[in-house]
Structures are given as C-alpha cells and as structure tokens.
Records
---
Amino acid sequence: MIKIFLIVTILSSGVTYSTQYEDMSKCLNAKEEVLKVNPSGIESYCVSESDKIPTEFDRDVEKLSENIARKMLVTFQAVLTTVLMDIQRNGIK
C-alpha cells in the first residue's frame, strides 16, 4: 500500500504538520480545505512515500539493517547446523 502524506507548513511560525492518507484524492481534498482557511499563510503539499528522496542517513540505516540481518542469518545457520550435527551424531533422545 502506498502511503500519501499531506504536509502543511504555517509560514509565519514555520511549524509543519503531517497527516497520512490512503489515496491521493483524499489528500488533495484535504489540501484544498486547508488552503481555503488561509491561502497566503500556508504551504501545503501531498507527497507519496515513493516520492521521498532517501537521505544519507536513510541509506546508512538501510545498510546497517542489511548487515544486521545478514549476521543474524549466518548465526542462525551456524546454530542450526550445530544442532543438526549433534542430532545426527547422538540421535534423538
């Protein structure tokens, strides 16, 4: 499922609000409602999660999670191999 975010920034204070929607049409309708309130003092955008540009931090986190997952898999395989070898040598008791 693609997530759509409505991002609203109040220009006078710089405060940003974000709300999640399930489809673009609902987001665009909400954006129109927000802009009716104060069209000159608010910036409003609908952004899909797929439009998000990954930052350096995002890439680092992704690499780290891949490394951790790989190490966990290798550890699990080593433990499983040890257990299976013990069962093969000693039999199931």
Note: Residues 53 and 59 are 10 Å apart (CA to CA).
---
Amino acid sequence: MKQPTFEQMKEFLVKRYKHSRLYGDPGDYGPGVVHGDCVVRSTLEYITKYSAGCAASQYESATGEAVWCQIVDGEIREVDADTALLAMKKPLESQAA
C-alpha cells in the first residue's frame, strides 16, 4: 500500500492545527529539534501503522473539534471518528491473529 509522505502529513496538519500548538511553540526541545516536525512525524507513524487515527485533539484543532484521518490510496483524508475507528480496528485484528 502506498504511504503518505512527511510533507503530505505536514500540509494536512498545518491546515487543521492551531499554529500555537504546532509550529508556534518556541520550547527548547534540544538542538535542531522542531516541535511541529516531531508532531508531524509521530502522527504519520501512527496513521501509517493503523491506517487511521486522531490527527488533532479538540485542544489542538483550529476548529475546536477533534480531527480524524484515514489513509486512502496513499492519501490522507479527513474522516469522521466512526470511520477512523473502524479502519483502525482492521490492523489490530490482524495483529491479534
């Protein structure tokens, strides 16, 4: 299955995250570490592993509502929570077998 790139995930999150929660955080995370890039990388790893997931909580989201996404044909698509949770269940069931 084709997987989305870091840049695709970053574009998806930048459009949906509060700037202050993603790239507006000036905290000291170590030399050369950018908080927003860490969030993008970890979100991409998670949705790649489970095919879907919560990309931003209600506190991080620009709209105040959680953002759920799913990988469909190598693209990241925003979906409702039920759709994402059903998509996530399939990889979990195959791991249990």
Note: The first helix runs from residue 6 to 16.
---
Amino acid sequence: MKRMTPYDLYLKAPYPLVILPARYAGTYEGGFWIGLHAHGIPPGCHGSDLTCVDWWATWGTHPAVVVGQSPDDVLARLIARNLTYADILPTEAFEDKTEELYEWIGERTPEE
C-alpha cells in the first residue's frame, strides 16, 4: 500500500477542520488530542470543569468530534469517518452554557 503524503491527507480530510490539544488531558475528552469538523472551537469543549464535562457528555459522541493520542491519530480517525460538509458540528454545540450551568448548581460564575 502506498504511503500517504501530506497532500493526500489534505485531499481526504474534512473541511473545515480543527485539531487541538485536550485541555484536561483526556479526563473529560477521552484522549490527548481533539479533532473537530467545525468552524472554530466551541467554548464548552475547552471551558471550565463544569462546562467541559457538560459539553463532552452532550457532543462527545457526535460524528464530527474525535479524540486520539496524537494529531496524526485524530486526523486518521476523521478521514476514516468519510465526513461531508453536511456532517459538520451544528451551531448548538457553540452555545455558551456557563451561566446556566452555574445557576443550576447554585454558584456564581467563575468571572464573578
């Protein structure tokens, strides 16, 4: 089998694509690196403990979200899913629920 060049990977990767290190080193995410088929980084996936655990519980199984042990691993997993633009992470995933979550547990938000 022919080894894939960076250009081959570029042609197969879903667009848009974000790969970044996990903020909590896999505690909530399940891996050290995160891959998102999305326009930007949702605030919840890198938020405070409370917002992060809520975001991953809600969106962590979405096809446009993958985790892995390295950026190459994440890219390979995204390519293997054969995602199209229709599979992109929806706008609901970008909603900032920090205030709502802190009200729910009866605490002030971290900014207060």
Note: The radius of gyration is 15 Å.
---
Amino acid sequence: MGKATLKHILQKFLAHVEEKERQRKSDNDVYQREFQSLKELTEALKCDLKYSSSEGLKGKFRIKIRCEDNIPIHIYRCQPKKE
C-alpha cells in the first residue's frame, strides 16, 4: 500500500465527521464517546515502548514542555540545540 496523500487523508476525515454528524441527530453523546475512546487509546499507548514519550520528559526537554499530554514519541523528537 502506498503512502496516503493529504487529499485522501482529508477526504477520509471529512467523511468521518459527516458520519458523526448524521449519528449525532439521534445520539447527542456520539462525540463524547469518541473522545473517551481516544483518551483510553492514548493512555494505553503510553505504556507501549514503541510509542513511549518518556524521552520527552527528561530534564533537557523540560523547558519546552507546555503540556505533558502532547509530548512526541521518541522516534519523532528532535534534539534541542545546545546553547
């Protein structure tokens, strides 16, 4: 399978939102349940070493951390410049 294009990703996202809006007409809690499932997934991934963000919690990155829930996983983190 090839790399997904931005256009394809956005089309899937818009289709997902449209589906949620259709569901919301009969169920007002549809977004609340989806956000809860995303929260649960995030918590589960924090324990998975493949997706660990423990590197971002180290002291050398502390100055850049604004929100501990938004720390990139190690394989995507840039090393800060030494000053």
Note: Residues 45 and 51 are 6 Å apart (CA to CA).
